[in-house]
Specification:
Strand order of the largest sheet of chain A: 5-6-9-7-8
Order of helices and strands of chain A: HEHEHEEEEHHHEEHEEHEHEHEH
Number of domains of chain A: 3
Number of strands of chain A: 13
CATH topology of the largest domain in chain A: Alpha-Beta Plaits
Largest sheet of chain A: 5 strands, antiparallel
Oligomer: homodimer
CATH class of the largest domain in chain A: Alpha Beta
CATH architecture of the largest domain in chain A: 2-Layer Sandwich
Strand content of chain A: 15-25%
Radius of gyration of chain A: 23 Å
Helix content of chain A: 25-40%
Chain lengths: 349, 349
């Protein structure tokens, strides 16, 4: 049966865009979890029409289809269970940056960082910044409703999705949403596809809301704690304060141990963990806001707090944070990346 | 048939909570549009269980049900077409303000302003502020995905809905969503009910995300224009600027004419219209931000621009804006309130 499917898919997509060798199937058998299943065949459509053809072949042969972008997800959403692995990375064109309406229309396979940079060059801002932004695709971000540290302030990917083009299992090409901020007419089908992990249809195009650039001054608060309960209380207090940071990251003593050589002087040795807060604001307001957040952290028992406005010191801090993940991966026996979400009040315990 | 329905409904809800006189039916026959249709009967359930009973009676008699709050909507979402007008205003309890998790759990009939004030008293902030906030219910805000001037910055009601309790037509009580900011597991059924105007089920309880209070300093920018095209261009330029205001209102020459006695000195006589922008920020940053927005407006040809930080001057401006709607209603022959949404680039033309 697989031979027939491969033949039919090749007739439509071209021979190079349909792979069935064991090596190719293994390549598209996993994502960033430890889940893995071989697909029977791997296809690379170049257009919405080709996606429709793939679904038509799948329908005719009653074979499941598993859409994916770069496979950086942490939930198994792009892991196939046999069938067709449908890889969207060839559909990687930014179709339109509409400055007047502050939106971008892109194919699902566009790399997130590529969109971020293109938009920035035009004086606008695409806030979602998942950890995998340099590799992940917008379509994957939509399918997983990707977050990232900035989602603390800016929300997850879904908040920026104004509309979608989706190919349904029966071949229907559905267009959802609109191009206005207050787009409240009719059922919100867009949100139904966001986070659905490819199970409801294949997202081929995405219309994204853009924002003006954030205020230009950047500050970083580094707060260290002797115990994790106090650190947890600080997260709740920072989240509820009017000066709430733009993003918030936590590192514990085990993480600090593996990057000891890069530990910045703002984090004293031997602490249980530290919070790194990014604050974006106007130059006039930055120092006052960092001071307010310092007080919040001291109020819940931080053993050391530094508000940094100096660019060099901030670079050191965030370089340490970025070095963490590869450094942890280097120690044995393995690294498990979780993408946990808990209610604020459950953090201190 | 109506007699039997009224009898069954009274048996469950009590005789005072089921109204069928002509006057009562007229009272619940309209919303803030000019649409109007008489319901056959009006019911006031006091609990989710009573809502289920109403739906059971409706099901047994194959009679349609039209849920409503205070009826301030501008889309006809709560106008009945015969059948049962189900009025949610008795389910008006704030069930929980969870400060640690920054959320509120409320019954659908809670008045929006009541929630705003209760939350503010606890040092938190519920951003949605539809024009009808002093009358409208949270359930109605959810059903219509209500906006208001602050939605320019804070988004519409839906952004704050974390979860819902909904009674479906078959009597099922569905609980959607969760209590975390990044709540991305499973299909987003919550968003499907938001904006569905009561057509998919009866929302009985709403869990809302709260924010920290906004920065404490308030400024207002008043920019006047000799023609509406320039005013429209200013809206686009303000929306795309990093100093983007928190809310934005426009008044044209016809509106200004009816409140001429209250026209503030910042708006010169004879202009085509004016923009009122609210800016919330830290005291240190306010003046600079107002200046930046002033420059934006001058750059597109404003004939007068004032950045106001003085509380008295701001009160005058916003009092004028609030006087507009009743003042317009007083002139003949009638007033039509539209709730239009257009793409930014379509505004200047």
């Amino acid at each position: 049966m697989t031979d027939a499917i491969v033949r039919e898919l090749r007739a439509v997509l071209g021979p190079d865009q349909v792979l069935a060798s064991p090596a190719d199937r293994v390549t598209y058998s996993y994502d960033a979890t430890y889940l893995s299943h071989l697909p029977d065949v791997v296809v690379f459509p170049a257009s919405t029409e080709q996606v429709r053809h793939v679904l038509a072949v799948a329908r005719a042969h009653r074979v499941p289809v598993f859409p994916r972008g770069s496979g950086t997800g942490l939930s198994g959403g792009s892991v196939p269970l046999g069938g067709i692995a449908l890889v969207m990375t060839r559909m990687n064109r930014i179709l339109e940056i509409d400055r007047d309406n502050m939106l971008a229309r892109v194919q699902a396979g566009v790399i997130t960082a590529h969109l971020q940079e293109t938009v920035r060059a035009q004086g606008l801002f695409y806030p979602p910044d998942p950890g995998s932004a340099r590799i992940s695709t917008i379509g994957g971000n939509v399918a997983e409703n990707a977050g990232g540290p900035r989602s603390f302030h800016y929300g997850t990917t879904g908040r920026y999705v104004l509309g979608l083009e989706v190919v349904l299992a029966d071949g229907t090409v559905l267009k959802t949403g609109g191009m206005t901020t207050k787009n409240v007419t009719g059922y919100d089908l867009t949100s139904l596809f966001v986070g659905s992990e490819g199970t409801l249809g294949i997202v081929t195009e995405v219309t994204l809301r853009l924002l003006p650039p954030p205020p230009p001054a950047r500050g970083t608060l580094v707060a260290s704690f002797a115990d994790l309960t106090a650190l947890g209380r600080a997260i709740g207090a920072l989240a509820a304060h009017p000066a709430r940071p733009t993003s918030l990251e936590m590192v514990d003593r085990h993480c600090l141990a593996v990057v000891e050589a890069h530990r910045p002087p703002e984090i004293p040795p031997g602490v249980a963990g530290a919070l790194l807060c990014e604050v974006l604001d106007w130059p006039e307001a930055l120092a006052g806001r960092l001071r307010a957040l310092e007080e919040v952290c001291r109020g819940v028992g931080a053993v050391a707090v530094s508000g940094l406005a100096d660019a060099g010191a901030q670079r050191r801090i965030w370089a340490m944070r970025e070095a963490l993940s590869p450094a942890v991966a280097r120690i044995k026996p393995t690294k498990i990346s979780e993408d946990a979400t808990v209610p604020i009040a459950a953090i201190p315990a």
